[in-house]
Amino acid sequence: xxxxxxxxxxxxxxxxxxxxxxxxxxxxxxxxxxxxxxxxxxxxxxxxxxxxxxxxxxxxxxxxxxxxxxxxxxxxxxxxxxxxxxxxxxxxxxxxxxxxxxxxxxxxxxxxxxxxxxxxxxxxxxxxxxxxxxxxxxxxxxxxxxxxxxxxxxxxxxxxxxxxxxxxxxxxxxxxxxxxxxxxxxxxxxxxxxxxxxxxxxxxxxxxxxxxxxxxxxxxxxxxxxxxxxxxxxxxxxxxxxxxxxxxxx
Length: 250
What we know:
This protein is of the alpha/beta class. The protein has a single domain (11-249), classed as NAD(P)-binding Rossmann-like Domain (Rossmann fold). The chain contains eight helices and seven strands; from the N terminus they run βαβαβαβαβαβαααβ. The chain has helices at 20-31, 43-52, 70-78, 103-126, 153-173, 191-194, 200-207, 218-229, and strands spanning 11-15, 35-40, 61-64, 83-88, 130-139, 179-185, 240-243. The chain has a seven-stranded parallel beta sheet with strand order 3-2-1-4-5-6-7, sandwiched between helices. Helix 1 packs across helix 8, helix 3 packs parallel to helix 4 (103-126) and helix 4 (103-126) packs parallel to helix 5. It is globular and about 45 Å long. It starts with 10 loop residues before the first strand and ends in a 7-residue tail after the last strand.
C-alpha cells in the first residue's frame, strides 16, 4: 500500500524515549517500519518502551546514556549504526520565578534542553553517523516563543536557544543533504505535566485558553515528527511545526 510517510528501511534514534513524547514517537516509528534505537538515563523505563515497539519487521534496541555528560554522548554515538534520523526529545523543566533562579537550575535545564542536542548533533556529524538523506527533528515548545507564562523563563529560554540552533544547523548541513526541523508542542498529557506543581483547577483554567479545549496527546506530536522524518518532507528543512491545539492564536 502506498504510504509517503513510511519509515521502512530507516534507522531512527530517539532521545528521552523512556516516556511521554519520546516513547510515543518510538512506538509510532516502529509501527511505520523503522528500526528504532532508544536512549535515556533510566534503563528500566527504556526496557518498558522497548517492549511496546512493533517487532514484526525489525529488531530494536536501547542504549542508556546521560546526555548531560559529553563523554556519555561520545560513547553513545560510537555505539550507533548509520542513522536515517534522530529525534532530539530529551528535556526537563522546572517552574521558577525570576527572583529565585539559581545558577544550578540554569546549568541543569540548559544543559539537557539546549546544549545536549547541540552536542549530540555535532558528534553525529563529526563521526559521520548520518546518511546524506537523513533528518534531524528537535522537540521545542510554544513556551519558547508563543506562550509566555510566569515561572517558565529558564525552560522557555533554553528552548528558544535550541530553536535558533535548528535554523543554523539546517543551513549548514543542507549541503550534506541532512535536514533539520523542529516541532513546538503546547501542553501535552505526559509525566512532565503531571509532575508540575499545578492544581487541577489551574490545569482546567489553562486548558480553557486552547481553542480545541484540551491538551494534546503524545501520539499527536509523534505523528508530526514522523512527517518530518519521512520522505514526504524531503524538501522541508529549517521549519518549525507548531502543534498546540490553537493555543498560540490567543
